Amino acid sequence: MNQDRTRAETLAEGMRVRREVLSDAHVDRAEGAKNDFTEDWQDFISRYAWGEIWTRPGLDRPMRSAITLTALIAGGHWGEFEMHVGAALRNGLTREQIKEILLQSAIYLSVPAANNAFSHARRVFDALDDAETADARDDNSTQES
């Protein structure tokens, strides 16, 4: 832990970064669902993953996202992978760059893992496209009223 920051400051910085990377909606759901059993886990992940690692100056956020996607593919953590595909887009990676990460993973992890990753990434992209289409329809109907 950065010795110049208090535990509370590290948590606050972690929550800020977590919200920027994963979205306010995601963090609000996680925080709203915490209970006595999960409260320590939420504190841990916010302080250490987001407050210590994601705030380090040595890598930019797109690089951290690329590493995270690859690690999640390697571990077969598909729910987290989908969440981090959206985060990677928020962090500045393009769909084309994500595709390249998945192709690279086929060589170093396995073709079946990359095949599964493409399926999960496409699910995220399709959901985002559907949401954008719905938003555009809502904007058009509001303008016509």
Care to describe what's here?
The structure is a single chain. This protein has 145 residues and is an all-alpha fold. It folds into 2 domains: 1-58, no CATH class; 59-145, AhpD-like (Up-down Bundle). Helix content is 81%, strand content 0%. It has 7 helices and no strands. Helix 6 (95-108) runs antiparallel to helix 7 (111-144). The mean pLDDT is 94.
Primary descriptors:
CMD-like; 7 helices; mainly alpha; AhpD-like; 145 residues; 2 domains; peroxiredoxin activity
Secondary-structure topology with pairs:
Blueprint: H1 7-22, H2 24-33, H3 39-53, H4 61-75, H5 78-90, H6 95-108, H7 111-144
What does the radius of gyration come to? 17 Å
Low-confidence parts lasting 5 or more residues at pLDDT below 50? none
Q: Write the CATH fold name of the largest domain.
A: AhpD-like
Return the CATH class of the largest domain.
Answer: Mainly Alpha
Largest sheet: none
Structural class by secondary-structure content: mainly alpha
Number of domains: 2
Compute the number of helices: 7
Mean pLDDT, to the nearest integer, reads 94
**β-sheet strand percentage:** under 5%
